[in-house]
């Protein structure tokens, strides 16, 4: 049986990878993928602790997070398509379309 610390370690590595992707990269698509990686790291923790504590609450919250991530990806990709069609760069620093 795999110990709980292994799941927490994998989750921490995934979360740090996603955090570095959000902070370092400037491409909007890579930033969205990094957010997805961070959400998956949280899901690993939720499911691991849910199994460890013998409760279904963590798994239900993980399913809710998966649904939220799917909606976030769809809306994010729609925004990217609109920005790309208007010939604006996909660089996060250069995008000020949604500012007042």
Polypeptide structure, described:
The structure is a single chain. The N and C termini lie far apart (54 Å). The chain is mainly alpha-helical. The model has no long low-confidence stretch (mean pLDDT 88). It contains 3 helices and no strands. It has helices spanning 4-24, 28-53, 57-85. It has a single domain, classed as Helix Hairpins, CATH 1.10.287. Helix 1 runs antiparallel to helix 2. It is elongated, with a radius of gyration of 17 Å.
CATH fold-level topology? Helix Hairpins
Give the percentage of residues in beta strands. under 5%
Q: Whole-number average pLDDT? A: 88
Q: How many discrete domains?
A: 1
Radius of gyration: 17 Å
List the helices and strands in order: HHH
Counting copies of identical and different chains, the oligomeric state is single chain
| Total E-strand runs | 0
Q: Helix amount, in percent?
A: over 70%
- How many H/I helical runs? 3
CATH class: Mainly Alpha
| Outline type | elongated
